[in-house]
Each structure stands twice: as structure tokens, then as C-alpha cells.
TrEMBL record:
Native source species: Thermomonospora echinospora
Transmembrane segments: 52-76, 83-103, 150-171, 178-202, 208-229
Protein name: Sulfite exporter TauE/SafE
Pfam families from the UniProt entry: DsbD_2
Sections of the chain in a coiled coil: none
Domain Urease accessory protein UreH-like transmembrane: from-to ranges: 21-226
Amino acid sequence: MAGSAGGGTVALFAAGAGTGLLAGAASCASVQFGLLTGAVREAGRPLLPVIAFLTAKLAAHTVLGALLGAVGAAVAPGPRVRAALLVAAGVLLTVFALDLLGVPAARRLLRREGQSGHCAAPPAGRGPGVVGNPGAARSPGAFGRLRRPVALGAFTVLVPCGLTLSAELLAVGSRSALGGAAVMAGFVLGTAPVFALLGMALGRGLGALGGGLGAVAGAVVLVVAGWTLMSGLRLGGWLPSPGQARAVAEGSAEFVRTDGAGVQTITVWALDRGYRPSAIVARSGLPTVLVVRTRETRGCTRAFVIPGRDLERMLPVTGETRIPLGSPAPGRLRYTCASGHYPGGITFRR
């Protein structure tokens, strides 16, 4: 029994590591690029900040995996809570981007009053080790310099990419703290080589090229910040509705059926890269069931969210999930994946 359990844990670790290495590294690096940039910002030698960032990320995800495995989806925050965290992450990334672009207000916000990015020369007659040297008093130690990379590495657990959500589903399915921790630890370690190379390149480039590369990195982080912010607003259902005119009744007949008892069934396919169809027209006022189908689906679309109802369903890799909708009033019911991507909606009309 113990050997079987150990073999299962190793298999879960390997599954997580394979997902991270083969599929998750690029997507997670794009989503968490801004946090990594903030970690190596102003680090002349980026090795220690990168190690601190990755160690904190590994620790945070391993703890999350253990909780998911032990308690299941009950410990996972709801869609609205995750949406608020994504919005907060988008705001934080925006501040980092403005800092890289040289905006004074952002620099003041990220640094203590009077702290400069350059080391001041000590007054004459006072070496760096002399008591009372103001330069030494203001100079942060090694642990102080690593505080920000550690905090940002841990914060990555709140900014998941699509493949992170798939690993979390696997952790929940393991039904054990050890199995869940193994999945998430394997996933983070699988993505670590790409993050390490990117972090080292960023740190050395920012140090060597200064403002030029900083401006480019700032522009990239600003795009990532906007994307993260929009994802959070979509996940929370806080974006204005694009309007019911976009949903065309033609083509909806294939996905909307009403049986002899007057129950309306709406079918949506969850694919790896979106939902089909993304716009449906159905009748309001009828008892309605939404059927979400999957076939070898492994992306974040498996975590299906209806923001307006704060409802989330974990879909099987292959199968169908039935979601009763009651008798919807006229209007638009939006859906998205759990990371705020691949939006779609059902327009109910009289």
C-alpha cells in the first residue's frame, strides 16, 4: 500500500513537471513576466533575486497544492474573489511598468522617501563600516534586497496562467495533501528553467543597457498589466456588456433545443482554446439547462465560470456537465474560463 501511494505521488509529480516543462512555461512566463521583471529590477547581479523569486513561487504553489489535495475545491477562492485579485495584480503590474518607464510618481511609490537607486559616496573620513555613517544606515542588507523578489514570487500564486489551473484541477483530483503538493511542486519546477533564463537575461539586460531596455520591458509589462486587468474584469462580470446585437440567431439553432415538456437545452463545447459557440441566442422565460461538453479538453476552459451568478464548474476532460439556469429573464448571461479568458455569452430574448 505504501509503495502504491509513493508510486502515485511520483506519477503526480511527473505529470505536473511534464505539464510545466512542455506546455506551461511559455504561457506562465507571459502572464507573470511583470512580476519577474519587478523581482530583478535594479539587481546588478540577478542570480540571487531569481533564486529567491523561484523559491518563493515553489513554496507558495506547493502549499496551495497540499491544501487543494487535502480539502479539495473548498479552499479555492470563488470567481469574484479571484477576479478582485487579478484586478489588484493588474494595478500592481501597471505601477511596475510605469516605474520601468521612468514615471516619477511610480518610482516614489515603489521606494521609500529619499531612497535613491544609486549608492551615494560616503562622506570624507567615514568608511562604509564606520558607526554613524548615514550611507551605511540607509543601505539595505542582502535579506532586505531579497524581500521584494520573495514577495513577488509568492504573489504568482494569485496570477495563474491557464495551465496552472489545469495543474490545480489535478491537485484537487489527487485527494491527498502529498499528491496535491507533488503536482504543484512538479509544475513549478517544470517551468523553472524558462523563468530562470528569462530572469537572468532581464536582470543583466536592465543593468547593462539601462533606460533603453527598461523602456522596452516597461512597455511589455504595461501590455501584460492591461491584459491581466481585463481578465479580472471579465471574470468578475464587471465589464460593460458588448450588447445583444452581436449575438445572431442564425447558427444558434444547432446548439439550442426545446423538448416536448418545454425545457430548453443549450449546448456549449469547451475546447482547449475557447468555447464554441461564443455567442448564442435563446428564448427567455423557459426552464433552461446549459450543457457544457468536453472532449480531451485540458486547458483552462475546463474551469467554466458564469460571473453573473458567481458560479463555477470543474469540467471533466471528456464528458458533459449539466447546469440548471432556471427560467432566465431577457438579457445576456456571460461565461468565461476561470482565468478570465475566452469570454462568451448567451443572449436571452422574448
